[in-house]
Amino acid sequence: MRDHPYASALASDMRAFLEFKAGVGVDGEAIAWNMWDLDRWCSANGVTELDRAAAEAYFRQRVGRTSTRQTSWVSYIREFARWLRLNGHVNAYVLPGDYRCRSERPIPYLLSQAEIDAFFGAAAVYDPPSPMAWEAAALFGLMHSCGLRTCEARRLRTCDVDLDGPSIDIMWSKGHRSRRLAVTDEVADMLARCGSRTDAEIGEDRAAFFCTGKGNRLGGAAVALAFRRIWSLAGLPEPASGRRATPYSFRHHFAYANIERWGREGTDVMAMLPYLARYMGHSSFDSTLYYVHTSPDFMGGFSSEASSLDSLLPEVGFDG
Fold first, then answer.
1. Of 204, 188, 184, which Cα lies nearest the Cα of 196?
2. Which of 15, 123, 150, 159 is most buried by a 10 A CB count?
3. Could you list the mean pLDDT of each consecutive 10-residue stretch along the chain, which spans 320 residues?
4. Are 4 and 33 spatial neighbours (Cβ–Cβ below 8 Å)?
């Protein structure tokens, strides 16, 4: 993890906070970078404590300088504030849960079954001079089968894969939540073949299940590049503008394909949403209901009904 040059009045607290997080197994670049961003802002504005005025001002300027709706960084600021309060900073302010961007969610690219079949047909013959030659089909196959976030697939460690279960452990994902996912025997066989090849080519002592030629964890750019090359190899269209398929499209497909299947089978979709939310690692039903609205077969009356029922559904948490 990069050693950022913290220099504000809260620098020593930030370093202690990061040491605490590392001590409980959370040692990520994202949290260190976000502390550094807060540190720079505190230095520039003469902030000496993260009280309510400072926390809210930082939130406003951070939202104002980003064009995306992603606010995962807010959780880091909340955690730091909680840590400060536990360590004697009584004025530290924990931003409430409703502090988030209000921009509209982008409509996801909805993969068709024909596109999925063509993609994995191309992935089977994709042959770059790197471990992605055998890893790509398994990595994207896992995302498609389990609805994983791209980062969750990239960060999967060898110790997180239980081929006997069979299951995989998603550790410290979005919002620092962890979950164990049961997988089918077919997925387990796919992972076993990939893991055996990587063991033979790279070595069994690597930490990352999907890795580079040097045994390091794959970066997001490498996964995106592999996806684009396989998409092109499959002869699939690449629009010059508008929505484009990305690795994350497999997660979208997992969600709405399950919703549509339950609908076709006559299963109570609303009763199944808590299970879908838990499997996908959603912190609330807002994210899960989003897929009801974007699912092609549920754009009409059902999505309106789902919205009206949202307030009746409890949140599903994944503390662990």
1. 204
2. 123
3. 78 93 75 91 95 93 69 84 94 82 65 95 96 97 94 93 94 74 95 97 92 92 94 90 87 88 87 88 73 56 43 34
4. yes
d(CA 256, CA 129): 35
Same domain, 166 and 82: no
Establish if 238 belongs to a structural domain.
Answer: no
243 belongs to a structural domain: no
Single pTM value for the model: 0.65
